[in-house]
């Protein structure tokens, strides 16, 4: 096997290797094909985007993030990610008294319908959490539902306006 063929074979093996094989700060490519939610299995607790490869925005907490299921991307975000290590120490224990933490079933998907029937601003309250996200599953109105124009979200819930009515998926994460 010639040098070029050997290099090409090595390149194709690396390209086909599962993302979970990445060690240390080796970048992992993760992409949302056709705008759909995608998980890339990595054993990381946190990550950072080092190179966006898509025209669609990659915004942490909205179009990409890391949760118990691994690295995820959505709505066309595609890029290279690396693991963030938080030093070599364990996090400090909670203050005496324990501090409040949600129950074990708190991190989950919640579906809700939010409607702007009078074309006015409406807020549908649901605790998304500090590391959660929201996506539109189905538009139910004749008026368009466009993120950041006629619908959006924050940690406290989902807002709609301009006649947008939709079914939303809240990926609630503490």
Note down, in words, how this protein is organized.
The protein is 8% helix and 36% strand. By secondary structure, it is mostly beta strands. Strands 1-6-3 form a 3-stranded antiparallel sheet, with no helix packed on it. It has a 3-stranded antiparallel sheet with strand order 2-5-4, with no helix packed on it. The longest helix has 14 residues, at 3-16. It is globular, with a radius of gyration of 20 Å.
N/C terminus separation: 53 Å
Estimate the mean pLDDT confidence. Answer: 79
Shape: globular
Structural class, please?
A: mainly beta
The major beta sheet can be summarized as: 3 strands, antiparallel
Strand fraction band? 35-45%
Strand ordering within the main sheet: 1-6-3
User: Total helix count?
Assistant: 1
Radius of gyration: 20 Å
Helix content range: under 10%
SSE ordering:
HEEEEEEEEEEEE
Number-wise, the strands total: 12
Uncertain regions spanning at least 5 consecutive residues: 6-23, 88-94
């Amino acid at each position: 096997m010639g040098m070029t063929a050997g290099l090409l074979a090595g390149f194709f093996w690396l390209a086909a290797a599962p993302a979970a094989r990445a060690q240390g700060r080796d970048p992992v490519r993760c992409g949302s094909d056709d705008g759909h939610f995608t998980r890339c299995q990595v054993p990381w607790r946190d990550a950072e985007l080092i190179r966006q490869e898509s025209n669609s925005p990659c915004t942490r907490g909205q179009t990409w993030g890391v949760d118990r299921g691994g690295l995820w991307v959505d709505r066309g975000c595609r890029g290279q990610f690396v693991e963030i290590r938080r030093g070599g120490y364990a996090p400090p224990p909670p203050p005496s008294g324990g501090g409040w933490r949600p129950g074990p079933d708190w991190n989950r998907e919640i579906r809700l319908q939010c409607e702007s029937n009078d074309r006015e601003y409406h807020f549908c309250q649901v605790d998304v959490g500090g590391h959660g996200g929201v996506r539109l599953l189905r538009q139910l109105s004749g008026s368009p539902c466009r993120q950041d124009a006629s619908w959006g979200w924050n940690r406290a819930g989902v807002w709609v306006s301009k006649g947008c009515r939709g079914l939303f998926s809240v990926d609630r994460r503490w």
